[in-house]
Structures are given as C-alpha cells and as structure tokens.
C-alpha cells in the first residue's frame, strides 16, 4: 500500500515532501503507519508530530477518533482546512512535552520519526504513559543513531537501541518490544549509494566542524545538499522510483545494523 500523495509546501527536508526524488524516504516513513493499522483499529489515537497529516489521514481510516499534534500553528491550521471533511480527525497545536491531553484519555499514541526532534525525550515518554488508558499502546519510531553518517541539524538527539531500551524500561518496565526496520537488497543498494555521496561531501570537513557549530547554521546547506543528493540518486539508480513499503521489513536480530528503531510499549 502506498500513501496518497498530497501536494504540500516543502518547508525543509524534515517535513514530508512527495517529489519523485524523495520516494525512498516517504516509503520508509510510511511503513510505520501501515505497521500501526492493527494496533489502532477501532481505537482512539493521538498522532504526535503529525506534520501535514499525510500519515494521520491514513490512520483515520482505521481509528474511531484521531488527533494530530504538531508544534507548528500554521501547519495545524492548514490541516484543519485540508481535512475538514474527516469527522473523526482533529488537530491540536502544542509543543511537547507535555502533551495537551487529559490523563488516560487515548488508547494509542503514535510518534513516528518525532522523538529525535525534542530535548526532553524521557519526559515525553513518561507523558505518553500518563495519557494512555490502562492497556494502551505507544508506538514510536526513530532513526538508529549508529546508522547515521552525518549530523542532521533538525535532530536534537538520535537514539541507539541501547538508549531506547533504557528509556523504555524506565517508563514501561518490561512491557515493551524493540524491533529494527531494514530494507531488502534494492533498498540497501540505494542507501549504500547515499552513504558514498554523503562521505564525499564530508571530505570537505576533515575536522568534523559540522558536529560542533550551531545547528541553525547547517539548515540551508543541509536542505540543499540533501535535495541535490536525492535527485542525483534518482537519476543514477533506476530503482529509486519503484521502491515501496513492501521493500522494508522489521527484524528482531542484529538491531544495530537497522535503519530505524521501532518501539511498541504497553501501559
């Protein structure tokens, strides 16, 4: 299943964008929404970090009620207009933590490619547990820090599996599971090409200064170089446009070699 492509304004490389060159990233991210379907069917859901709602509207096909949360007031207002015809969807602007939700008010909280963007990550996980009903489920995805090549200026801190394990145990005890998202040969060839491209750029920074300077200084060059790289990969790798969510899969072994961390916790 592929996402319905919704035209949007491209703010940066951390917001969903559906030009052809971004297809692999879209499919990798959308895998999480398909994975969540059985967990959210017939449930009330809070989708944290919903952005323009491209994944939230998919989850709304299965949930009884879903509320998308995002820090951007402009994004939330646009979402309210875009999805005004969806009676089981609503949107809320808030910067988390804390979540602007009542205690024990939702069955499922989803946070896909979100937690790496905030300062108080453990505080967020604790607040998720607060708003979950008894027996409620938290589904969280985030990039695996061990697979990152260069600094992403939009990420405050990226998790390793060991770090995620520690935080999940602090909040949910043993009631959680960690899995890793990996790709097939076609996907991993794309990321191998991606890695070679990025390492060529990093040769221009032999002292690793990009890791030390303020993140705000990196936003424009990061957006430019990421766009250029993905367009180059689209032109040189004929499989780029044909990759779908079916080319990704979850595994429970060799987690440190996976692209993304998937955590599923139960209250």
Helix vs. strand class: alpha/beta
What kind of sheet is the major sheet?
8 strands, mixed
> CATH topology, anyone?
Rossmann fold
Radius of gyration: 18 Å
Record the strand order, biggest sheet: 3-2-1-4-5-8-6-7
Contiguous uncertain segments of 5+ residues: 1-13
Could you tell me the mean pLDDT?
88
Secondary-structure map with pairings?
Blueprint (H helix, E strand, L loop, with lengths): L22 H18 L3 E5 L7 H4 L5 E6 L2 H10 L6 E5 L12 E7 L8 H11 E12 L17 H12 L3 E8 L1 H18 L16 H18 L11 E4 L8 E7 L1
Parallel strand pairs: 1-2, 1-4, 2-3, 4-5
Antiparallel strand pairs: 5-8, 6-7, 6-8
Helix pairs in contact: 4-5
Short synopsis of the structure:
This protein has 267 residues and is an alpha/beta fold.
Give a verbal description of the structure.
This protein has 267 residues and is an alpha/beta fold. It has a single domain, classed as Rossmann fold (3-Layer(aba) Sandwich). It has helices at 23-40, 56-59, 73-82, 121-131, 161-172, 185-202, 219-236, and strands at residues 44-48, 65-70, 89-93, 106-112, 132-143, 176-183, 248-251, 260-266. Strands 3-2-1-4-5-8-6-7 form an eight-stranded mixed β-sheet. The radius of gyration is 18 Å and the shape is globular.
